[in-house]
Amino acid sequence: MWFETIIRKQTGCATYMVGSLETGQCAVFDPLWDPTPYLDLAASKSSTIRYVIDSHAHADHVSGARRLAEASGGELMLPELASD
Question: Rounded to two decimals, what is the model's pTM?
Answer without folding.
Answer: 0.87
